[in-house]
Amino acid sequence: MKPQDIMKEKGSKWIFGYGSLVWKPDFKYKRSKIGFVQGYKRRFWHGDDFHRGDKDKPGRVVTLVQDHEACTWGVAYEVAESQVEESLRYLDMREAVAGGYALELVEFTAREEKALQEHSHKLLALVYIATSDNPIYLGPAPESEIAAQIVLCRGSAGLNMEYLVCLAQFMRHCCADVEDEHLFSIEAAALALVL
Ligand code: SIN
């Protein structure tokens, strides 16, 4: 199934956030669940020349990269049918037009279902993902270089450092038992540069 197919269906829609959407959704939704998508790793490999950087100094923000062995934790938001048009219009401007992300579909498992081993209760969720064919995609780099870039960048939404720290805080507070080596080592390297 493609995002366009699910958009044609009636009823509420689920949207999975794994970057700024976990701590700053700013769109209308009726409830949210913490959980994960299997088969993707979260990486600071996307460039951002609007929200957290500019044309001269693009910031580094996260995208999802396929990896069978990985899973990425975040928040799925249920948007009521009556809110879908407004919320998706807002998110398309923020994520697709300004951010260079494209809409995809993923299977989301909520934390409570993981605990019950009830993987049959996966939800189909819309997600914004940036891929290497995007002109502002930056790709892999050593974590120390990613951190050094993040501490220098700022965009219309604020410091790239704020984006990094808020995402790390979300993982520490809401997903305390989940390892996220990439995120936490970039945060540690960035904090070491500024403190
Ligand atoms: C985004 O949602 O990708 C950008 C918003 C932000 O960085 O605060």
UniProtKB/TrEMBL annotation:
Keywords: Lyase. The keyword Lyase applies. Coiled coil: none annotated. SUPFAM superfamilies: Gamma-glutamyl cyclotransferase-like. The keyword Lyase applies. Transmembrane segments: none annotated. GO terms for cellular component: cytoplasm. It catalyses: glutathione = L-cysteinylglycine + 5-oxo-L-proline. GO terms for molecular function: gamma-glutamylcyclotransferase activity; glutathione specific gamma-glutamylcyclotransferase activity. GO terms for biological process: glutathione catabolic process. It comes from the Eukaryota. Pfam families: ChaC. Its EC number is 4.3.2.7. It is an enzyme of class 4 (lyase). Belongs to the gamma-glutamylcyclotransferase family. ChaC subfamily. Catalyzes the cleavage of glutathione into 5-oxo-L-proline and a Cys-Gly dipeptide. Acts specifically on glutathione, but not on other gamma-glutamyl peptides. This is Gamma-glutamylcyclotransferase.
